[in-house]
Every structure is written in structure tokens, then in C-alpha cells.
Amino acid sequence: MSARDEVLARLRAARDAGGASPPDVARDHRRTGAHAPGSAGAVDRLDETLTDYRATVHRVGGEDEVAGAVAAVLGDASSVVVPAGLPAGWLSAYDGEVRTDDPPLSVADLDATDAVVTGGAVAIADTGTFVLDALAPDQGRRAISLVPDHHVCVLRASDVVSSVPEALARLDPNGPLTFVSGPSATSDIELDRVEGVHGPRRLDVVLVGPM
């Protein structure tokens, strides 16, 4: 009997047995992190892990400082794409061209745009990850966060949690979710790192909250 035949025979036997109760699985894994959601500890931890992933973090104390931070991060970018529901005040200090993705821009138009600015649904401090929800008006469809070479994401302290289970509890699984951990990067067999292969080469996070 070949290995393939043996595997198929085992599958058939398991199917024919039927009615067998599944084994009990321990579900006592940790569901919360060391820091409470939105706390200074969670925000500091997120700053640390984002930096480990080669994102650049810009801390601001309140919403009134977001516009200045975003304009500074965009620097000499001549154009930026934004989702239709992005707060208008976030770009009030930016003097380049703002392209709203409504109606949706073509891939060619997105590729010709210098940067994208979005909000975020939730950020995970322990992993240095933030999540974009395509159903949210300040985050928009997935393409706008993947095609431009520079992504600027504004995250509020209230959306920062410590652990993955805490983040998943806040997300709607029925819509497209994009998990972002640093700039897009890959490494070949010799571990030579190349950035910008599957998404933005540069990632800046404006983190609004306790400093």
C-alpha cells in the first residue's frame, strides 16, 4: 500500500466511524495582555513593537496635533489618496493634491500617487500590528493601502489593545481585514531584506494619546 492509499484509508475509516466525540481542547490560553486597552502602557508597548518592525512612530498628545504631524510626515509628497470618510482636519495643514477614493481610483492612478493616509480599526501592542477594516469610512478599500509607496496611518490610543484576542473581539469578520506589521518586506534564501515588494515601502504611524 502506498503512503497515499494509507492516508486515504485512514480518512475513510474515520469517516465511517462517525459519531465519535471530538477530543476536549483546553481553551485556557491568555486572552488579555499586560496592559489595559488604551492605557499609557499599551501605547508605549505599541510604539516599541512598531519601531521593531521598522515603522516610524510619531507621538502626539491630541487630535489638534494630528494635522501638523501628518503634514510633516508627508513632507514633499505632491499627492496623497484618502478614503472618503477620512476626517478632513487631518489634512488641513497639507498643501499637496488630495485625491479622494470616491469613485474608486484606478490602480494606475494609485500607483502615480505618492502616499496614502488612513485611520485604523485597532492596533495590537504585543505584535506591533494594526488592522484596517475596509468597511470603515476612514480606512477605505484595501487597494489604497497597498499600492502607494508610502502609508501614513493615524491611530488613537483608545484603539490600542495588548493582545490578538482582544483585537479580534473588536473586529467584524464579515468584511475584508488587512493586518499590517511594518513596511512591506521579504527576504530571499540568504536573508537579504527587500522592502516594498507587496505594499508600501515606507510606513509612518501617527499615534494619538498619552506620551
Description:
The model has no long low-confidence stretch (mean pLDDT 90). This protein has a single domain, classed as Rossmann fold (3-Layer(aba) Sandwich). The chain has six helices and twelve strands. Strands 1-12-7-4-2-3 form a six-stranded parallel sheet, with helices on both faces. Strands 8-5-6-9 form a four-stranded mixed sheet. Strands 10-11 form a two-stranded antiparallel sheet. Helix content is 26%, strand content 24%. The protein is of the alpha/beta class and 211 residues long. It is globular, with a radius of gyration of 21 Å. The relative contact order is 0.20. This is LUD domain-containing protein. InterPro entries: FTHF_cligase-like_sf (IPR024185), LUD_dom (IPR003741), NagB/RpiA_transferase-like (IPR037171). Residues 112-208 form the LUD domain.
The biggest sheet amounts to:
6 strands, parallel
Number of helices: 6
Fraction of residues in β-strands = 15-25%
Helix share, percent:
25-40%
**Over all CA atoms, what is the radius of gyration?**
21 Å
How would the global form be characterised?
A: globular
Give the ordered list of helices and strands: HHEHEEHEEEHEEHEEEE
What order do the strands of the largest sheet run in, or round the barrel if closed? 1-12-7-4-2-3
Low-confidence stretches at least 5 residues in length (pLDDT < 50)?
none
- The CATH class is identified as Alpha Beta
Number of domains: 1
Topology:
Layout: H1 3-17, H2 40-52, E1 56-60, H3 66-74, E2 79-82, E3 97-100, H4 107-111, E4 115-118, E5 122-124, E6 129-133, H5 142-146, E7 150-156, E8 160-161, H6 164-170, E9 177-180, E10 185-187, E11 193-195, E12 202-208
Parallel strand pairs: 1-12, 2-3, 2-4, 4-7, 5-8, 7-12
Antiparallel strand pairs: 5-6, 6-9, 10-11
